[in-house]
Every structure is written in C-alpha cells, then in structure tokens.
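Practice problem 4.
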C-alpha cells in the first residue's frame, strides 16, 4: 500500500542530493500555465460573459449572474446544521485569538539626532480569496483566509468558489454560510483559473467584480498556474500544490495514531503526500500493518486514499537515527510536520523547514486544519524552506518613512556624494549638493 525508502547504513547526502531521494508529487505548473493563459485573457476581454461560459463548460451549470445574492448567504446560514455552525464559530474564535496577536505596530528608529526612519504597516486595499469546491468543500479555508485578512485591516474582501450544479449554480451552502458568519457578503460563483483572472483584471457590469490587489487561497493546479500567470500584477500567497504530511517518529510513537494521521491527509487527493520518517523498523512495520484496516474502514478509498498512499509522493523513510530523521524532514520541507517522538518539543524546536509543526501525540494535523487557531494555508512542494503560511503579515505592506533635518542631512552628505560618484550616478549626489549651495558640507 505504501513504499519504503531505506536511507540507513550510509552517510546522508547534503542539500539537493538528499531532496532528490525523497518522495514528491509531480505537479507541473509550467505545463498548466499554457492551458490557463487563454482562459485568463478571455476573462480579460469578455469579463462576466466569459465567466458564465466557463461555468457551463467546466462546472455544468447555466448562470445568469456570477455574483451570489446576499439573500442566498443569509439562507445558507439559517439552514446550516447547528452543530456545524457551532464548530465554525469556534474555529473562527480561535483563529481570531491567534491572528490578532500577529498584527505589527508602527516603529520609529532614531538613526542620528534629527534623522529617523519609521516603519508603518499598511494593509492591502482589496483581496480576492479562493475557496475550492472540487472533490471536497472547505468552509475551513474560508475561515483561514478571511480571518487574517480582517485582522490585518483589509477593507474590501471578496471570495470566489466554484458553482455547484446540485445547488442551483451557487457555491456549496456551507461555504456561503461561513461567509455569512464572517460578514463577507461579496461572493462569486466562479471557480478555477477564471476566478483568479476575475480578481486580477476585474469585470464590469451589474454584478461586476472590482480588481483586487492580492489573491490568496488553496486550489488545484489550474488555480496555481493562474496565480503564477498573474504574479507581478497581483500579490499571491503561494502556488499551493497537493497537500503533504510528514511524520518524524521513533519507537515511542503509537502506530495507530501515525497511520490515522497519514490517512487523514491522503483522503484529500490522489496526489496527496503521506511520508513517515523513522529510525524504528518495528514502528514502520506496525504502521504499515495498521494502514490496512483503517483504510478499509473509511471513505474515499479507491479514488483518493489508496492512490495517494501508493503513489510516488508517499513513503516510509527509514533512517539510522532521529538526527538523520531531522535532516530528512528539513530537506523535505513539509506543509504539515508532526513530531511523534520522546521529548517531541525539543525535536520540534530544532526543525528549520516546515509550514506548520505539530508537537506530540495530542496535536494532530487535523486539529490545525480546523480548531488549533493556527492557519492551514501553508507552503507545499518544499516551499517551506523559503516561504511561510498565510498570516496577518501576508496582507500587510511595510512602508519606510524617512524624516531628516537639515543638520542631519548635512552630516551625511559627503558619504552620499562619495557613494553616488562610486556608482557613476553624479546626479544622485547633485540632489544633495543643490540643498547646500552646491558645496559638500564638512562633517
């Protein structure tokens, strides 16, 4: 059901050589880019008419408009299962607690007497958020995108989610209910690359969508390709690929827990990655044995879980020691990394590359997906070695404000002129000389 990679016996290679030995899903965004390019440009030129046409082509629904009526949001919330509503409200409450603490404050540094640099943090004006609606429906992704944007102070928030044939061309009602709970009333029944194009270019008309400064949210390869296409025109969070879980475990780990957690991510997608890194062959055997009955007892077995576990992106990786295991998980850079070892907190503190780290047996990835308070929009495909998960910071821009007096400028003018001339940019220096009668003040 799941393959093994045995890295025991020899010294582990470094850097890219080690990464090349580890399992990873094939996710060719560059190839997809050529397919989404004409879709994006069609939306640019035809706007809402193109969106309606793609809803028919890709989602099998006939729409008269793409903007979701506010009444539909209210109805979805009124009809929401009370238990689901309570769970969403708790998820929102915990996410707000964590994300509110992330807000940066303005800070002024006095560089010299009379010379200060202030860094202020300004939210982007408008964001477009994407909530997937393919194999599964993710109201939790609505929470994880909206809450940090709101806590950052973003004034204009719009959300897009694919139209659903079984729901009359509207996005899934649980998505709509989550929007209503969060106070987001600008919602569009648009999916895929065309949703990103709608936010990037904007559309006109009665149910038109003003262009956004930034687009965030997970999606399939077409959404990721569209984000790449528009990078530079709009800000993005990340080109999210298939979900990943890596578990660093030793002989103290419970194989029942480890198997359950691997399966929990495998049920997302046949390309989802489930990786166990362990120095215990006995644990590896026990986990592999435990996978069989747990997989048989759940849903989505043939179309998602079995292909995911059997795919080249999933494996049990055997190492000589936890030190080697730490090198492996750092090279892998997992979206989600669980540490199920003795003294798990100490090992977790040494991890450099992960989207989010889950410490010990009582902090499974599923907790982070819904109610830990952390954000589940995280870097995939090894991008955790250079990128972070979605946060309040994602929606803020740092702006430096430079304020110098005449004396403070005079004191440093000779250095500025010297550096300008060293770079053969004499007009830079002249801009300062002009302020002092074309003479360089003496320091």
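Answer key:
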């Amino acid at each position: 059901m799941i393959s093994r990679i045995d890295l025991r016996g020899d010294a582990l290679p470094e850097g890219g050589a080690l990464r090349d030995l580890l399992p990873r899903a094939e996710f060719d965004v560059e190839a997809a880019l050529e397919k989404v390019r004409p879709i994006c440009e069609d939306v640019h030129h035809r706007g809402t008419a193109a969106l309606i046409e793609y809803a028919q082509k890709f989602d099998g629904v006939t729409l008269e408009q793409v903007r979701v009526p506010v009444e539909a949001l209210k109805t979805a919330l009124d009809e929401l299962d009370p238990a689901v509503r309570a769970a969403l409200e708790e998820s929102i409450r915990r996410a707000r607690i964590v994300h509110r603490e992330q807000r940066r404050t303005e800070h002024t540094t006095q560089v010299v007497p009379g010379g200060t640099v202030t860094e202020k943090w300004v939210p982007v004006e408008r964001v477009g958020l994407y909530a997937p609606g393919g194999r599964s429906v993710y109201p939790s992704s609505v929470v994880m995108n909206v809450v940090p944007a709101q806590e950052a102070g973003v004034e204009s928030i719009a959300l897009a989610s694919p139209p659903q044939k079984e729901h009359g061309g509207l996005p899934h009602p649980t998505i709509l209910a989550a929007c209503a709970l969060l106070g987001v009333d600008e919602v569009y029944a648009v999916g895929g690359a065309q949703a990103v194009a709608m936010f990037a270019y904007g559309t006109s008309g009665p149910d038109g969508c003003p262009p956004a400064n930034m687009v965030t949210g997970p999606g399939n390869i077409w959404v990721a390709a569209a984000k790449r296409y528009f990078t530079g025109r709009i800000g993005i969070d990340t080109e999210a690929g298939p979900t990943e879980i890596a578990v660093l475990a030793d002989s103290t780990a419970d194989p029942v827990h480890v198997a359950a957690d691997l399966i929990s991510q495998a049920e997302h997608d046949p390309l989802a990655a489930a990786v166990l890194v362990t120095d215990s062959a006995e644990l590896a055997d026990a986990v592999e044995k435990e996978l069989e009955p747990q997989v048989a007892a759940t849903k989505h077995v043939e179309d998602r879980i079995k292909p995911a576990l059997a795919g080249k992106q999933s494996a049990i990786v055997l190492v000589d020691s936890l030190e080697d295991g730490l090198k492996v998980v750092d090279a892998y850079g997992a979206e989600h990394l669980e540490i199920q070892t003795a003294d798990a907190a100490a090992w977790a503190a040494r991890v450099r590359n992960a989207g989010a780290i889950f410490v010990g047996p009582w902090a499974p990835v599923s907790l982070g997906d819904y109610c830990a308070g952390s954000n589940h929009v995280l870097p995939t495909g090894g991008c955790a070695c250079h990128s972070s998960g979605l946060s309040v910071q994602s929606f803020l821009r740092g702006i430096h404000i430079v304020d110098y007096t005449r004396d403070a400028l005079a004191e440093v003018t000779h250095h500025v002129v010297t550096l300008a001339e060293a770079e053969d940019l004499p007009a830079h220096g002249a801009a300062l000389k002009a302020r002092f009668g074309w003479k360089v003040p003496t320091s």
